[in-house]
Every structure is written in structure tokens, then in C-alpha cells.
Design brief:
Strand order of the largest sheet: 8-7-18-19-20-17-21
Distance between the termini: 60 Å
Shape: globular
Radius of gyration: 25 Å
Number of domains: 3
Structural class: alpha+beta
Largest sheet: 7 strands, mixed
Length: 686
């Protein structure tokens, strides 16, 4: 019988295998963990679970048991090499790139360095051309890679961009005029539950959502923009009771090294800075800012392979494949879990990184174990907490390799918005198309032709039955038909592979109130011994998952009480980094203005009386950073004379800071969450 424990003597260690380990019913006790101070279970073997287990294993006094339902580790990071006509072709079936930038990429870069993957990172400095499919052709979006004249020409030559900008200005002018003088009060279950589509439509008009924003959401979440929660996508929705002037916001937040971020980003940055010296911190910051994106030249799954290998060789880690955790229950001094093979174990702490619907099933036993009245109350509370967190979409990934070179326009690819006709231009219900990686990517791939990726499905397939989903052959035919219609590619690919990724991207609706209830429930029944991480509870990007895992592990090791949820429904933090003369870094909350050109640039786009709240401002900031940052100085110089009287710095900055300080009122709203979920008394000092 195979041993389930991986802590074999050094001479007998085996390389990690993703093959299914033999199942056997075992009840193990505290004696199995003798010699350790803490015993932690991690549920889920995707990138979040692997990173959590790895960070926990760095403490030799902590024993980690990792449970994975399937026969392999790695989750959706899946790479495959194929031999085609004597050439080695790399296909990716999951995420293909990591985003660079500070502070978002800090946790990822730190992990790459620790795993020895720095030399395998291929950093792409430019953003490359990005397109949106509009009607029956591609529309190139402005970007810093085009330069000032190139961007001006892109706007001038595109009736789509000119028309979209005009519609945004007209719509927003009407919205601002109609709402002038009114205050938008916070409703715990109202405004906080607004979908991203509804909110952006109310601010920028339906055309902006249908023609542009929906395409961005297709590319990131494969989601319906009118169903996904704004809080899921953007850092901090509707946090102020009034509205904040966009110009004021940009004047304050466009300062050098300043940004508005969720508390999880700020807290991770502070923990990260605290354990490194100034020189190392500066090295990480410069590395994070050295490019736009990066990829691993031997495939994205190299990251999960490295993590699995480290866990396999760690004496304090037990990896259990093919084990489905069916129940999670609080017990005296810990948490008890049950596996489908009958195995029962108790741990000091459990971290779940699975989807929220899986967690809900695992908690059902808790409700039935309570008294009748408490059981009904707990069941209703869990139902309310999970009803807007549950749900995930299927995405079909099709990779095609053509012998011919240069079949696609230069750039990263294009996304397909809601406005594209399903019946005429997109019967395949595609989400987007990915072009070949740039030459500077330096991938370990000897292909000389054209490699294309097609993503289909997502929310478009929500109502489809299992029998309606295409098989591999049908999906390949659909992808070829799409490329023929959109790009005029009539050639047959040398090789094509398709893979259906089931329930791969969680679809969170109205997450703010729901996560407040869930946080309260878990605190009450598990006393902070059960924590959560993963895309069901926060943003779905790779950087976000790795950061959530690193922060979760740090909180467990430091014995800091947290379910790891509160970072996602509390107000955003104002953060940044600054290097003092003594060489030390600190995180400032206010500093002197370091330039106003980026802020003034937005006056070209929006009228001076435009007012946004935090959701729209965050979206605008993302668009600005992506497309306009490098040209802001030049464009602003052209228009600065017309807006000179807008430079009332004191009035403007005071208004922003007064509005941002209203975020403190969110302490009262968190109390409402706790009371709604029976979370106990408040311990906060006023």
C-alpha cells in the first residue's frame, strides 16, 4: 500500500507525481503531528492553495496537510508541449501572462524569486496593440506604445472611438446635471449590491458598457457585466456618502508612488517591507515596474510544478491527492474535517481555497449539528451569505497553430463586447482571441508559424445544458469559423487542441454584503480558525490569488485573528512608498504634490463639473494607467491654458481628503454586518 505521507527519508524521496494516490481510510490523531507547534490544513491544490501551503511550510514548526480533490495539482495553470513537424509548440490552456506593476505584483515577484524562477521570467516592456471587435472589424485602442502622434491619429481615424467619447460626455453631463445637489446615501444591501454594468451605465451611458466595458469583463472574468458585482472588479465601490470630484481625485492620487488600494494590498506591502532591507525593497519595486506583463518561457505551469516540488520535498508537508473534503466542523480547540474516504482529522487551523459553492456544502453539517432554532437560523444565514457568492462559468480554450507566419495583426489580441451580434458576427459566443506572443517573450518554443488562442463560452453558455456544450472537435471547428469570419484566415491549422475548463472562473454578485455575513458567521462559529482565499472571495487575477495566499499564510503564522475576508468589504486604503534620505522606506498616507499633469489630462476627456465616486474613479485610473500615462504631459501641455483656473489646489485637495475620511464611517457599517450575522459584540475602541 502506498504511503500517503510524503516525508520519506532523503534517500527514498520520490519526485512528485500527479498520478492519483491510492485511497485508504485512515483516522489520524495528534500523535501524527508530534514535534510541531501548529497543524494546518489547506483545501484545494490550485495556485492559491499551493502558495498558501508553501508559505506555511517555510515555518519548520508548522505541519501542513494539503487536500486536492482531483488527481493533479496546479488548478487552471495548464501548459502542454507538442511536437509538430519537428518543432516544439507550447500551448496554454489557462492564464498566459502575469501583470507587472507595483504594488499589485509584489507577492508574485517575491514568489518567483523564492522558487528560483527569476531567470525564466520573460518581461514584456510595452503593452502592445490591443483591439476590440466592433461591428465587423477590429478597432485598435490607444496605448503608450503608439506615442503621442500615434494616439492622436488613432482617435482621429476611428469613428468608433470618437463616437464613444461623445456619447460618454453627453451621458455623463446629463447624469451629473440631474443629480446635482443630491447626496447618495449608503444602503447596506442597496448600492453595495449594484452590478458593475448598472453602475457604469448610470455614470457613463449604455453605449460605453455595451461597446467597451463588457469586452474588458469578457477578457478577465468571462462574465456578464450586468451580473458581476462592482466590488468584485474594482478596488472599493461606493465608499463615500457624497461624490468626489474626478479632477480632485486625480490631483491627489496621481502623485508619484501614490495609489488607492484595498487593505489586503496595503497590509501585504507593509508586511513585505518589514522583513526586507531598503536595498532589497528598492530592487523589488524597480523589478515590478520594469515592464507591462511577464510570462514564463517554459510555460505558466512551471510555477505550480515548482511549488509542488518544494512541497514534495518538505518534511513538514503532507500532500493528499484524490481526497474530497466533505465536511468542515468546529471542534474544541480546532477544526475537524472529514474526507470522502472516511478519514477524519483535527487541525489548529483550516484554510479553504475552493469555490464558495463547495465550501457551502462542506458547512452544511454545521447547521444540522446545532439545535433546531439555531440550525434554522444558521441555514438561513449561510443561504443568504452564499446566494450571491456562488456560481462559476465554463470556458472553452482552443489553441491553433498555423504553418504560415503573420496571419494576425501585431499585438496581443482582441476582445468581443456585448454589442457584437450573436446571430451574425459571433454565433460561436466567443469572448476574445489571443495573438501569438511577441518575439521579446523569449518562450522555449521553436514554432515559426502563427499560434492563436480562442476563448469561448463564459456567461454566454450559462443556460446551456451539458448536452449543448461542444466537444473538442466541434470547438475547433467553431474557432476556425470565427477566425475565418473575423480575420479572414482560411488556412487549415497544422494542429489544434481544445479543452473545456469547467467552473473555472467564479462569478460573484453582490459580494460586499454577502461577505460581511459570511465573515460574521465564520468568526462566530470557528473563532477565526477557518480562513478563506481564492477568486470566489476576491479578484480573480493571478497576482490577486498569490497575494491572498501569502497574506493568509502570514496571518496564520502570526496568529492574527482573521477569516481573510474583511479586506474585501472594508474601505480602500491610501498607500504608497517613499524612500527617505536615510535609505529607509515607509508607507505614506499624505505627501506633497509631485506633479499635476496626469490629473489635468482628464480634463481633456471629461467636463470640469464631472463627479465620480470611487468605483468610476478606479476604472478611470486603470484606463489612464493602461493607455495614456506616458502621453499625459504632452497632451496636457496643449490644453493647460484652457483650464488654468481649475488649479485651486487647497480647495480641491481638502475636498478629496474630507471625502476619503468618510471611509471611517465604514466601521459602523462593518458593525451592521456583524450584528446581521450574529457576530457578537464590538471590541473596537472609539
Amino acid at each position: 500500500m502506498l504511503r500517503s505521507r510524503v516525508n520519506l527519508p532523503l534517500g527514498r524521496r520520490r519526485c512528485f507525481s500527479t498520478s492519483l494516490q491510492a485511497r485508504h481510510a485512515v483516522r489520524f490523531h495528534r500523535s501524527d503531528f508530534e514535534g510541531y507547534d501548529r497543524h494546518v490544513a489547506v483545501i484545494g491544490g490550485g495556485i492559491t492553495g499551493l502558495t498558501t501551503a508553501y508559505r506555511l511550510s517555510e515555518n519548520p514548526r508548522t505541519h501542513v496537510t494539503l487536500y486536492e480533490k482531483s488527481s493533479r495539482l496546479g488548478g487552471w495553470l495548464q501548459s502542454e508541449y507538442l511536437d509538430v513537424d519537428g518543432k516544439r509548440i507550447l500551448f496554454e490552456y489557462g492564464p498566459r501572462t502575469f501583470r507587472m506593476g507595483f504594488p499589485g505584483a509584489v507577492a508574485t515577484i517575491e514568489l518567483m524569486q523564492d522558487l528560483g524562477l527569476r531567470d525564466e521570467m520573460s518581461i514584456i516592456k510595452g503593452t502592445g496593440a490591443r483591439y476590440i471587435y466592433h461591428k465587423d472589424h477590429l478597432e485598435r485602442l490607444p496605448g503608450p506604445d503608439q506615442g503621442l502622434l500615434g494616439n492622436l491619429w488613432t482617435f482621429a481615424s476611428s469613428s468608433f472611438l470618437r463616437g464613444l467619447l461623445g456619447k460618454i460626455l453627453r451621458s455623463y453631463s446629463e447624469t451629473t446635471t440631474s443629480s446635482e445637489g443630491s447626496e447618495s446615501a449608503i444602503d447596506v444591501q442597496g448600492d453595495l449590491s449594484q452590478s458593475l454594468g448598472d453602475y457604469l451605465e448610470s455614470q457613463l451611458g449604455k453605449d460605453f458598457v455595451e461597446d467597451f466595458a463588457s469586452a474588458i469583463i469578457h477578457g478577465i472574468y468571462a462574465a456578464d457585466i450586468y451580473k458581476i458585482d462592482a466590488r468584485k472588479v474594482l478596488p472599493g465601490p461606493v465608499y463615500s456618502q457624497g461624490k468626489v470630484n474626478l479632477l480632485a481625485y486625480m490631483l491627489v492620487f496621481s502623485r508619484k508612488n501614490m495609489y488607492c488600494a484595498n487593505w489586503d494590498i496595503t497590509l501585504h506591502q507593509q508586511k513585505f517591507f518589514s522583513k526586507l532591507g531598503p536595498e532589497k525593497i528598492e530592487e523589488y519595486i524597480n523589478l515590478c515596474k520594469s515592464g507591462s506583463i511577464f510570462m514564463l518561457n517554459r510555460g505558466m505551469s512551471r510555477l505550480t510544478e515548482k511549488l509542488a516540488k518544494r512541497l514534495n520535498w518538505a518534511d513538514n508537508v503532507d500532500v493528499r491527492l484524490g481526497r474530497d473534503v466533505t465536511s468542515i466542523l468546529p471542534s474544541s480547540g480546532g477544526v475537524k474535517i472529514t474526507v470522502d474516504d472516511g478519514q477524519v482529522a483535527q487541525f489548529d487551523h483550516v484554510c479553504s481555497t475552493t469555490r464558495s459553492d463547495v465550501l457551502q456544502k462542506q458547512l452544511n453539517g454545521l447547521c444540522s449539528s446545532l439545535g433546531d432554532q439555531d440550525s434554522r437560523t444558521a441555514s438561513e444565514l449561510i443561504s443568504d451569505a452564499f446566494k450571491n457568492l456562488n456560481g462559476a462559468v465554463n470556458v472553452m480554450v482552443v489553441n491553433l497553430y498555423y504553418k504560415e507566419h503573420g496571419l494576425t495583426p501585431p499585438g496581443f489580441g482582441y476582445l468581443i463586447p456585448n454589442s457584437v451580434s450573436i446571430s451574425e458576427q459571433n454565433p460561436e459566443r466567443a469572448l476574445g482571441v489571443i495573438f501569438p506572443p511577441p518575439d521579446e517573450a523569449g518562450q522555449d518554443d521553436s514554432s515559426e508559424g502563427t499560434k492563436i488562442g480562442v476563448m469561448m463560452g463564459g456567461h454566454w453558455w450559462d443556460d446551456w445544458k451539458e448536452s449543448d456544450l461542444p466537444n473538442e472537435e466541434q470547438a475547433i471547428d467553431m474557432a476556425k469559423a470565427l477566425l475565418r469570419r473575423h480575420l479572414g484566415i482560411d488556412q487549415e491549422p497544422l494542429v489544434a487542441k481544445a479543452r473545456l475548463q469547467r467552473n473555472c472562473i467564479p462569478q460573484t454578485r453582490s459580494s460586499t454584503f454577502s461577505m460581511g455575513l459570511l465573515d460574521s458567521f465564520l468568526c462566530q462559529h470557528f473563532q477565526d480558525r477557518l480562513s478563506l482565499a481564492g477568486p470566489s472571495y476576491g479578484p480573480a487575477g493571478l497576482n490577486d490569488c498569490i497575494r491572498a495566499a501569502s497574506l493568509n499564510a502570514s496571518m496564520i503564522l502570526d496568529q492574527e485573528s482573521s477569516t481573510n475576508l474583511s479586506w474585501y468589504y472594508t474601505a480602500p486604503a491610501l498607500a504608497g512608498h517613499k524612500k527617505e534620505k536615510d535609505g529607509n522606506f515607509y508607507t505614506p498616507y499624505r505627501s506633497k504634490f509631485d506633479g499635476v499633469f496626469p490629473a489635468l489630462f482628464f480634463l481633456v476627456v471629461l467636463p470640469r463639473f464631472a463627479e465620480f465616486n470611487v468605483v468610476t474613479m478606479s476604472f478611470a485610473t486603470s484606463v489612464y494607467n493602461t493607455f495614456f500615462r506616458r502621453n499625459a504631459v504632452y497632451l496636457t501641455s496643449i490644453f493647460v491654458g484652457a483650464f488654468a483656473f481649475e488649479m485651486a489646489f487647497d480647495t480641491v485637495s481638502d475636498r478629496v481628503w474630507d471625502s476619503m475620511n468618510q471611509g471611517r464611517q465604514w466601521k459602523d457599517i462593518k458593525h451592521k454586518y456583524m450584528k446581521a450575522g450574529g457576530g457578537g459584540d464590538d471590541d473596537d475602541d472609539e
